[in-house]
Request: fold
Amino acid sequence: MRAILPLLLVLSLPVSAAPLHSQFLPPDDQSLRQETPEAQQLLQVTDYSVVVGNQRQSNQQPIPITAPLIVRLKGKPLNKGASISRVLINFDGEAGKSLKKPAFDSKTRTLTLNYPVAQYRIILDLLRNDTLYVQFLSYPNGHIWADLHTGTLRAR
Reply:
């Protein structure tokens, strides 16, 4: 019985589980994801829309005209504690420009992602042809990871 007691104590300790869909994360070469995530939002995309805007702010000289490109995703949260319901993907056309970091707003339950405009066709192709998931992870060290990914697919 004495030999079994330490084993029972070890088995009763909480186990830090890997986040759902962790198999889709790239290698952690810089050891940024060693800790258990503080938060995970995992969404299966069910609907999407594309918005190509055009705006002019008339109070500025010279008058800038911008044409934002946004993909709006809706879906259902998949993991326990997830409250995400929408994703806004903004595309920026300036090559070499640093993109804004992913941000989750718990009040609106919206994740905002930013991608270079070169990724637009790839994302639209994924939306049209596969089941798509959106994942957002935040870590105690300040690291944030967000991605769009398909499930595991069989090669044709």
About this structure: Residues 52 and 69 are 5 Å apart (CA to CA). The first strand starts at residue 39 and ends at 52. The beta strands are 39-52, 55-56, 65-66, 69-77, 86-92, 103-105, 110-116, 132-138, 144-150. The first helix runs from residue 4 to 12.
